[in-house]
Amino acid sequence: MSLVRLQKYLSAAGVCSRRRGETLIREGRVTVNGAVVDGLGAKIDPDHDQVAVDGAAVVPSQKALYIVLHKPAGYVTSCRHPGKRIVLELVDLPERVFPVGRLDKDSTGLLLLTNDGRLHHRLSHPSFDHEKEYDVTVARPISDGALQRMARGLPILNTRTRPAEVTRVSEKRFRIILKEGRNRQIRRMVGRVGNEVVRLARIRFAGIPLGNLSEGAWRHLTAEEVAALLAAGSAGQPVGPSPVTRSPAKTSAGRPVAKRSDG
Question: ∠ CA 121-165-211 to the nearest 5 degrees?
């Protein structure tokens, strides 16, 4: 008999993320064999125990799903948020999937969704160093010095951001590659250098590019992309080539913008 933690079982079954599962357990909304379980240390036998959430039986997904969504602005990256539009409303599938990581409500771009609980955990956790690339437009022209400060790392939220790779696109636009995901990190970093984000779009995550997917649309990952994701989830390393050049961008004065990588 192989026992697993209840929250891990809920995640692997495609009900929700492991963290959300812990919340459901604490709230007393999960039962095992008809009895409410509210302790996070509870373990079950997946082959014999009957699990339910809010009275609905949990049936493990038989098919692993891997989806990329082009998130529009105005949607919350959550499985449940009363009174708000959530990203799951955009994915018309009978199976339950949940987002990998987050994009804030005002941001757009690439969002991965899956019912593979193990992969979800490994791609979401900051210790696995998966690259996330963003295209950022700011309100006012941004100096080379400001970009260099962001590349070196800035103090926010009582800590310092890790070194990042920053490339200028135009006087008010740049791309940044992170290997962490603090709350509203890019917006806070831009604020620290005296500017303001007016558009923020994620264009790549763990080797998967957004490409030309229309805003609000979604697609299944290709077999090759799934294999790359699974490899990234196992090794904890970014995979696949970046869709943008690694060479330094030139400023209007012809000077390269300094870039730092945490890789």
Answer: 65
Give me the tens of pLDDT residue by residue for the chain, a chain 263 residues long.
578 889 888 877 777 778 888 999 999 999 999 999 988 889 998 878 899 999 988 877 667 889 999 999 999 998 778 889 999 999 988 788 889 888 999 999 999 998 887 777 777 766 567 899 999 999 999 999 999 999 999 999 999 999 999 999 999 999 999 998 888 999 999 999 999 999 999 999 988 999 999 999 999 999 999 888 888 766 544 433 333 333 334 333 333 343 332 32
- Cβ distance 219 to 180 under 8 Å? no
* Domains, the chain, ordered by start: 4-57 (3.10.290.10), 62-263 (3.30.2350.10)
Bridge partner residues of 165 (DSSP): 177
Tokens representing 98? 């949940």
Q: Locate 199 and state its tokens.
A: 């558009």
Phi, psi of 35 (to 5 degrees): -105, 135
**Alpha carbon distance 11, 27 (integer Å):** 16
DSSP 65: -
Name the catalytic one among 49, 104, 106, 262.
104
Whether residue 262 lies in the annotated active site: no
